[in-house]
Amino acid sequence: MTATPLLPTPRPGILDITPYKPGKASAEGFANPVKLSANENILGCSPLARDAFLQAGEVLAQYPDGRGNALRAAVAERYRLEPERLILGCGTDEIFALLNQTYLTAGDNIVQGQYGFGAYAIGARANQAEVRLAAEPDYRIDVDAILEQVDERTRLVFIANPANPTGTFISLTEVERLHVGLPGNVLLVLDGAYAEFNTDPTFSDGMDLARSADNIVVTHTFSKLHGLAALRVGWAYAPAAVADAVDRIRLPFNTSIAGQAAAIAALGDEDFQARSLALVEQWRPWLIQQLGGLGLETVPSTGNFLLVGFPRSGGRIAAEAEAFLAGRGLIVRGVAGYGLPDHLRITVGLEAHNRAVIDALADFLQRPAAG
């Protein structure tokens, strides 16, 4: 009888995790399609950041500052924060993973909205924790629904504000109500990846609330407004005890010399930031108006993107629209993986991109429905 060979075995639950699937980046037949699938800054990045990145090419043989002290100082000065309470990460994705790894054990749980960013759940399941999804009526975080999911094994609550992929947000008053309703041992993580795009007077990224709280972490990224998605630089403002705990398992040199230098330069280029925000402020409402004129529903968004609904009753489903747009060299994001099979997420682009999307969708909707 032949013995069964011993093989390395992943820990329970790992092979049950669905890998994160990013937005598409190519369209058949187009060498340079218009990519509106990843909420990237359509203007690119700050020229100052680009110069800093290129200059970093002179020191590629060197390790970066493992603590990222210069970047910590720049972020701390810009936001009036204590640098020792900052956590730097290879994108905020790594920070979410580190928080999960630091605070979760088997049998614990996290709570997030039903349409929450997939990275939260991946990190939790990797640590054998349960992921609890709270209903989002009208595609918006519901504080009461979140609190109903919290129990004695809840360790983290993740809220993207504004949310991805919906673009909706909850006010500072609602964030405060959520925080008050949580036990003190539950960490509230406020993901502010799109916070800079939200100009509503009732909105706050929660930074001021976090200054005096023992269980709030606020994260930001250089990938969206600053256009440095390729360099993977994110940061978090956390209670000192949380920052210390996370730093004990953070891998050394997790942000590169080039990433740190470009992020510092980007942070100082307020002109580029202003132009990026102005573009979204100009074309987001135009897109909403035009899409509405085509009979399509848009979820109210305060991000640099829109979630667009395709009612099945009209016989035009989102997957067909996504394929049709790709045939025109326009790549948008199908969000069926988020439980939204009847929607597409579309990044706000340049004028020519936005007009091309509307023209293509108008043509799509005029075609006879399949079947």
Can you offer a commentary on this structure?
With 371 residues, the chain is an alpha/beta fold. It folds into two domains: 20-44 and 271-366, Alpha-Beta Complex (Aspartate Aminotransferase, domain 1); 47-268, 3-Layer(aba) Sandwich (Aspartate Aminotransferase, domain 2), CATH 3.40.640. It has helices at residues 47-55, 69-79, 91-103, 118-126, 143-149, 172-181, 207-211, 240-247, 257-268, 270-293, 318-327, 351-366; strands at 34-35, 86-89, 109-113, 130-134, 154-160, 187-191, 216-221, 234-237, 297-299, 305-309, 330-331, 333-334, 343-347. It has a seven-stranded mixed beta sheet, with helices on both faces. It has a four-stranded antiparallel beta sheet with strand order 9-10-13-12, with helices on one face. The protein has a two-stranded parallel ribbon with strand order 1-11. Helix 1 runs antiparallel to helix 9 (257-268), helix 2 (69-79) packs parallel to helix 9 and helix 5 (143-149) runs parallel beside helix 6 (172-181).
Observed structural traits:
371 residues; alpha/beta; Aspartate Aminotransferase, domain 1; Aspartate Aminotransferase, domain 2; 2 domains; seven-stranded mixed β-sheet; 13 strands
Low-confidence stretches: none
Largest sheet: 7 strands, mixed
- Derived from helix and strand composition plus strand pairing, the structural class reads alpha/beta
Tell me the number of structural domains: 2
* Number of beta-strand segments: 13
From the N-terminal CA to the C-terminal CA, the straight-line distance is: 57 Å
CATH superfamily annotation of the largest domain = Type I PLP-dependent aspartate aminotransferase-like (Major domain)
Q: What portion of the residues fall into strands of 2 or more residues?
A: 5-15%
